[in-house]
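Much of what follows relies on a compact textual record of a protein's fold. Think of the row as the fold of the chain written in a discrete alphabet. An example makes this concrete, so a full record is given next.


***
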Amino acid sequence: MMERTADPAQLGFDPTRLDRIDRHFAHYVDSGRLPGWQLVVTRRGEVAHASMYGYLKREERVPVRPDALWRLFAMTKPITSVAAMMLWERGLFELTDEISRWLPEFADMRVYNKGSARRPQTLPATEPIRVWHLLTHTSGLAYGFLQNTPVDEMYGNEGFDLYPPATHTLRDACEVWARLPLLFEPGTAWAYSVATDVLGRLVEVVSGETLDGFFAERIFGHLGMADTRWWVEEADKERLAGLYAPHPVDGHAAHADDVGRLALMKPNMLSGGHGLISTATDYHRFTQMLLRGGELNGERLLSSRTVDFMTRNHLPGDADLGRLSRSDFAETAFEGVGFGLGFAVVDDPVPGRVPAGFGAYGWGGVASTTFWVDPAEELTAMFFTQLMPENAYPVRTQLRQLVYSALVD
């Protein structure tokens, strides 16, 4: 259960301004736009503000509870990136290594040149996919659910939408993706993609463990994340938040049952890009580990130097997403935001017109969840709800406005 652990005023917050956050997002629920939410703001390792409002299941009037289970979707990606960098710290690969060394299906890739999804024209790739390309979404891989390009459409034609085909394992999926052309030469642009799923497969092959086994033993067990899992059993069904989407007529949150019920089924494919379900308490432990430079309660997952390295902008030419992106989708703003090894990183908050500390980093999920870590301010923030798509309402930008305007020290 998340509760305040220190006086917000002693942590540099104006308590009345923190209360604005609750009032603001309560209006989203009262007006029918969000089903319910849970949020946590910390500073210097202490919880300054923790609150929840609304419903886990709106139609049944089941209220949000402290131990609610939320679909993380893409907030799985930073965990997979941490797993990969734990192996990197052991010297098991270099970031410049070609991934075909472990995943030979990705050798001899081709790049989309022109044409339709049904009749594409391709050219041989001149640059192989390297490990750092997966971590930064500069691999040229694509995403089926986006449908922005003919390459995305090719993924969709193979059955890859928001979820993969039910019969596929992660290994199967990688073999399919490797047969499809890249959207661009690796390392030349940025596009949101299945790269982190491929990274999860790399973790499996390099470590010799399954992805769920690695996460459970090497990450969740050490951090005390006992409630984070890949699906929800019957015993915990009442804790799982319903999944919603805006109704096309009135914009009110309406059940997205076809996708939502998948969280109750054991998946065949353990997706490093979007598969996990967790609680605010568990994800708080993950963010505190990052804020503390890779360590929590005496358990060290990464060196502080590695965390610093991961949370710098690794995009070519130190470009931001606005300049380098070939996708109109990301779980963050584009202007002034770069990308590190698994996280979006704020290089300059001014171009995006959204307050954030220089070097703040984080990510979000397609159901409008979000988190960030601000090392300069020693601050973390998390927001959980379950509304798709993530850009239906400006929840993330408004949360940043409200959190940073509550800092007064």
Observations:
- The chain has a mean pLDDT of 96.
- Residues 73-230+267-344 form a domain with the Beta-lactamase fold (CATH 3.40.710.10).
- The CA atoms of residues 75 and 364 lie 5 Å apart.
- The two ends are 28 Å apart (CA to CA).
